[in-house]
Amino acid sequence: MKLTFWKRKKSTDSVVEDNLMASIKSLQYDDVGLIYPYQQNAKNDADFYWESLEEEDIAYLMDDQYVLPWEELFQLQQDPEHSNVLNLLNLPSPTNLHPVIRSEGGLSDPDFKIILDGWCDQNRIKSKGLIKRIGAVLNVDGQEYLLNETTWKLLEKIKEFARISNKDNKLNQKYWAQIRSLANRSQANLDEFLRKTVVLAPEKLQLNLRKNLISQESVVEVQPSFEEAPSNWLQTFDHYNQVQDQYSISLPDGGVAHVVIDPQVKNVLSEIKKMPNRRVSGERAQTFLHNPFAQLGDDATEVISPEGFEKSKQDAEIYSYSLQIDKFYNELGHYVSAQLTLNENSGREQQSILLELSTLEQTKYFISAYEKPSPIFMWAGYTIDKTSYLDHQIQELKSDLTEIQKYEDELQAQQVLDLSNYSDRVIGIGEAQKLNSEFIQRESGESEWLPQHLMELEQQFQDRFSNEVIELLEQRIKQAEQEGKDQVLIPNGNTEVSLDDAKKLFNSLSDSNRKEPIETLEEPTVNLQKKKKDTLLIANNIDKAEFTKQRADQLVFDEKNHPPARLPSSFRSQEFGLKPHQEYGVAWLQNLHQYAPEQVSGCLLADDMGLGKTLQLLCFIGEYLENAKDKKPVLVVAPVSLLENWEAEANRFFNAKFAKILSLYGENLKDRKIPKHLISAQLRDDHGITHLLEEEWLGDADIVLTTYETMRNLEFSLARVDWGIMVCDEAQKIKVPTAMVTKAAKAQKADFKIACTGTPVENSLTDLWCLFDFIQENLLGSLNEFGKTYRRPIENLDNVDNEVLEQLRNLIAPQVLRRMKHDVADLPEKIEVNHCKNITISSLQRHLYADVINRYRKLSEEGNQGAMLASLHSMRMICAHPFQLQPNASIHESPKVDWLIKTLEAIKAKNEKVIIFTEFRDIQVFLKRILLERFGLNVTTVNGDSNTSSKKGLTRQNLIDRFQATSGFNVIILSTTAVGFGVNIQKANHVIHYTRSWNPAKEDQATDRAYRIGQDKEVFVYYPSIAANDFDTFEIKLDRLLSSKRALADDMLKPNTDLSKELINLI
């Protein structure tokens, strides 16, 4: 850990000392660990130190407090990097007292107890003071002392044992063995029964070795032992054919030691028991001596110390060897293999041992093993001595590998740079070209306005975006550019966004917060110095149709009398059946696919959310893989949470005969990438290509699941694969012609491409053109031709050309499938509750509202460009959460909260569940407190940065599953940004949009987490809005605006209007 906060500049040593003392706060703690109040803006050294502990997952945040678990504290005490800063934790002095422990009952008693009976000093004199323990802190007559780790573990183990209700002899012995070991190390004072009761529960083994020569073969005897093992332990162990859970062994003093065998230890002993007479011989002996863990099972790494095993080998006089290397070359003069001749360094007449280095990879491992800093090295189970002559041979071998690596680099570069390996649409390799078209920009001539999710982020953290923070954001953008990263951590927000989004946010903040904005990038790239980075150049079809794919004149599909869907044999049709609209979807896909790739190259699946498109696509893909004559692999590209859903549905609906799936993202991706240093220098240095997959990365996989970011980063590997089918799920990710991810998708070589999105047109008809330029190049002509022919006449809001609109609709119809839930799904009714849209404004809200309007007018007159967004945010918060501006106000001054409580009480009476949507964390925290006070509910909150997949803590899906699993009334709070993909919450049937999204599609997407296939109740949707009788509030105006935009949503060819033009009307 780099304690960068500690390196802040100080003028003098006295200032450092003064600041240090000022930063130390009184000690707070509980049974879990140390506690420290969370500071939103760190002010002193202690604040910064706690912040760094939380960032490194050493401490964690809970209820606005940092918590440092005791076990983590003890680890910090052992870490030299923390030794100079631990005083910031204000730890008490260590105690010199030792625990006094007594017992009640015998080990075989079900009520056997081990009890902490006070404390004593080093002379065993019991303390008479008032002593209380909390966690690892001992309070003695009001003075606090810190326990050491061993004593704390001892007391925690005693407490753990005391909580067990169903005890038996075996359990009592196991716990006493563990407590006894800790008690001895803690110098605890034990009563007479405990002192005389010897129970050993070894968790570690020491493998002593003895080497013999039997029938001219090397034999090694393995003698397992452990700490405090009785002298006749090994004899007792050998007496049984199977490893026992417990051994009773007589002691020389007449007593009995009970040895309780831990499950992990038993597994290792069982592997040793499999060895005839605990002996290994020949090659197995050498392999065992080289790596005993490989033969003793997974638990051996926890049970056996590698250092202890090496010492056992030395004690057994297991010899080393000398080595001679003989190399072999091919007709090109390149090294291909080597023979290793080993001779035992024992002074005895022994035959040489011959080994082979048969592959280049094996040779690299051999050199790597040799170069480890040690006078000896291990190879194939043999201990080999290093010599100066062997050093010379190794250097020659490295030179040979350098030559062959140079040859392979040239071959690798040739394969990557050869355009014949890519689709016909790839026309070159070079730096990305900036695309210009009036139809890529808004009609206003401005680039796309700050996206909704960034606008919400800017408003959420606007007070934290000082000039210093903006400069830090700029630094992080530059660093990400230099390191080739595609994510940037937003300062103070603990939120990661894409590099492109970070640049957009930076530009917006610079305009709002600086009198003279720094030079920013023209979209989509920042004007920062960066290394050359080549990409696949494609025929972009902007000015003219450079690349075309002809579509058949007639794509016949009889909607009423079409052939039935062909389902794969792996589909578990006896347990699951397809709904009629799903069967239709599969049949429609199969009909189109029969014309591919010559007469059609793809389609747009634009179904409404919740209709089971993943299942339809899996059936389509499964049948193709089973029956295609020359099947090719299938590529599925989607956000990571949806990829997890793809895997889950494949496992649920199909049997083991279904396709082999390769997840090419996360940890799985790391194993298949070529390490950067093994990528050809020509590719790295001349072309900036640093991401490639290994040559045989695909293996025998039928379906590859990957993310849009991975597809973009690994385009030089993925675009060389001949895909049978390519699916882009949530294809709005590739609707921007200038985006690198869009270009990477269009560069893929696929026979049949499927774009899946419920919102194919979000901003303008350019979105639709871009999707069709992916699935059926040139059907809609070049972008400029399309813009003139279709976009202008259709998007002319003053005079829409409906005839042109119908021409476009008819042109794309054969390759578009769009069904809405209300048309095809057998769902209960979705009811919008309107009476909550007229909640009377309070007097406090009126007063605050007037202040904001007056402040906005003044700032606008002064030319402040950030005034509009700041004022909108303030008005939004006044309507939803006036207590942020007036913390001491009565709860009745927030009529929306009053409405919420009454509504939840009515829902509780029905025993039903509720989702509350708001993206503002301060409102989330406030609502959590209110719901705890009024309903006794510890409400779960899920935000966009909640884990989708994690090894530590609950993931987003875990949190939602836990909410759904509870019976009866319950509430969950979600951010609209948390529910974009892969979240299903059908157990809830009340959806409250406590604050509104700027985008009606986002709101509907959030609602549809509950209103989807699997919902069996009527779903009630609430848009609570603060209203006044003499003026239109922000929420009333926003509701009116969203309603008008929502009315256009059913027609996918009618884009949403530019919200930036209408924001001023909300004030």
UniProtKB/TrEMBL annotation:
<dbReference type="InterPro" id="IPR050496">
    <property type="entry name" value="SNF2_RAD54_helicase_repair"/>
</dbReference>
<dbReference type="GO" id="GO:0005524">
    <property type="term" value="F:ATP binding"/>
</dbReference>
<dbReference type="InterPro" id="IPR014001">
    <property type="entry name" value="Helicase_ATP-bd"/>
</dbReference>
<dbReference type="GO" id="GO:0016787">
    <property type="term" value="F:hydrolase activity"/>
</dbReference>
<keyword id="KW-0547">Nucleotide-binding</keyword>
<keyword id="KW-0378">Hydrolase</keyword>
<feature type="domain" description="Helicase C-terminal">
    <location>
        <begin position="896"/>
        <end position="1060"/>
    </location>
</feature>
<keyword id="KW-0347">Helicase</keyword>
<dbReference type="Pfam" id="PF00176">
    <property type="entry name" value="SNF2-rel_dom"/>
</dbReference>
<feature type="domain" description="Helicase ATP-binding">
    <location>
        <begin position="594"/>
        <end position="778"/>
    </location>
</feature>
<dbReference type="InterPro" id="IPR000330">
    <property type="entry name" value="SNF2_N"/>
</dbReference>
<dbReference type="InterPro" id="IPR049730">
    <property type="entry name" value="SNF2/RAD54-like_C"/>
</dbReference>
<dbReference type="InterPro" id="IPR038718">
    <property type="entry name" value="SNF2-like_sf"/>
</dbReference>
<protein>
    <submittedName>
        <fullName>Superfamily II DNA or RNA helicase, SNF2 family</fullName>
    </submittedName>
</protein>
<dbReference type="InterPro" id="IPR001650">
    <property type="entry name" value="Helicase_C-like"/>
</dbReference>
<dbReference type="Pfam" id="PF00271">
    <property type="entry name" value="Helicase_C"/>
</dbReference>
<keyword id="KW-0067">ATP-binding</keyword>
<dbReference type="InterPro" id="IPR027417">
    <property type="entry name" value="P-loop_NTPase"/>
</dbReference>
<dbReference type="GO" id="GO:0004386">
    <property type="term" value="F:helicase activity"/>
</dbReference>
